[in-house]
Design brief:
The chain is α/β, with parallel strands linked by helices. It folds into two domains: 2-83 and 195-277, HAD superfamily/HAD-like (Rossmann fold, 3-Layer(aba) Sandwich); 85-191, HAD superfamily/HAD-like (Rossmann fold, 3-Layer(aba) Sandwich), CATH 3.40.50. The protein contains nine helices and 15 strands. It has helices at 33-44, 62-69, 82-91, 108-111, 143-151, 175-184, 197-209, 225-235, 259-268, and strands at 2-3, 16-19, 48-53, 78-81, 98-101, 126-129, 155-158, 164-167, 170-173, 189-191, 218-222, 238-242, 252-253, 256-257, 275-277. A seven-stranded parallel β-sheet has the order 1-15-12-11-2-3-4. It has a four-stranded parallel β-sheet with strand order 5-6-7-10, with helices on both faces. Strand 6, helix 5 and strand 7 (155-158) form a beta-alpha-beta unit. The longest helix has 13 residues, at 197-209. The chain is globular and about 55 Å long. The two termini are 18 Å apart. The model has no long low-confidence stretch (mean pLDDT 94).
């Protein structure tokens, strides 16, 4: 693994970049100017930049949200989301009924137009989760519900494999934490976002639409070890680990990514990264 100073240091090795959004391009409250500038420079060199996010909603509203956070539209060519990939899984299970877990307004677009019926847990055919119902809840709040779901052997469709995500200076729990606990009980879980193949298939399609080929040299960029880096490993892509985002500065020394600390963090998840840097610049 090589510690980079700038993305430009290895730009000539790649034709396209599959870049995570939350924790790399922004922190949930504001965009990172240096990260956006790095992606703009890649596009100026004729390379494709596809933002690939585990956000549990279709891509439709994402450009406007990025603009509100200060991320310029010319920093990327296309966006694919876990929500896009998950809608296919949900459509295959229509009309359900489903037992839904997740905030009512935030994820509304995930379910729209799928004709999915909703039902109490005891009458549902499967569980669909986009996140925790309230931002201040923890996975422990769902322990009893998961036990009841496991007793009925209900399948869970999880729209966001992330365990936590950075929001400003704090971390909030994501749907992946609930899915993780359900799997620990022996429950069946279906996920389409990173690190799983469906979201990368969507990204490849976008790359082909932009004129790229199946043999394009792709670098995956992200701060999620079990999602971004594991997904890149599974797909056979090189990867750039951003040692900040959800990790804060725990993997830094003197403002730079610490190779030993990063290597230990990667080893805990049994994955490897081609490169690492403290933040995308």
């Amino acid at each position: 693994m090589r510690i980079l100073e700038m993305l430009d240091d290895v730009a000539d090795r790649y034709d396209a970049f599959f870049c995570d959004i939350w924790g790399v391009v922004h922190n949930g409250r504001a965009a990172y100017p240096a990260a956006c500038a790095a992606l703009q420079r890649m596009r100026a060199q004729g390379k494709a930049v596809i933002l690939i996010s585990n956000v549990p909603k279709p891509r439709g509203p994402i450009p406007a949200q990025l603009a509100q956070l200060g991320a310029p539209a010319d920093a990327y060519d296309a966006i694919v989301t876990s929500g896009d990939a998950t809608r296919r899984e949900l459509a295959a299970r229509a009309p359900g009924p489903m037992f839904k877990i997740g905030p009512e307004d935030y994820d509304r677009s995930l379910w729209e137009g799928l004709d999915l019926e909703r039902a109490p847990l005891q009458a549902a055919k499967f569980i669909a989760i986009s996140g925790l119902n309230q931002w201040d809840e923890t996975p422990a709040d769902y322990a009893e519900l998961l036990q009841a779901a496991r007793a009925r052997d209900l399948e869970m469709v999880c729209a966001n494999p992330d365990i936590v995500v950075q929001s400003g200076d704090r971390l909030i729990w994501c749907a992946g934490a609930i899915a993780r606990d359900y799997e620990a009980l022996g429950g069946r879980v279906v996920m389409a976002g990173k690190p799983f193949a469906p979201i990368y298939e969507l990204a490849r399609r976008e790359l082909e639409r932009l004129g790229g080929s199946e043999t394009a040299r792709v670098l995956c960029i992200g701060d999620g070890i079990p999602t971004d880096i594991a997904g890149a490993n599974a797909q056979g892509f090189d990867s750039l680990f951003i040692a900040s985002g959800m990790h804060g500065e725990a993997l830094w020394t003197n403002g730079r990514a610490d190779a030993a600390k990063v290597a230990a963090a990667l080893a805990e998840e049994n994955v490897i990264a081609t490169y690492a840097m403290a933040a995308l610049v």
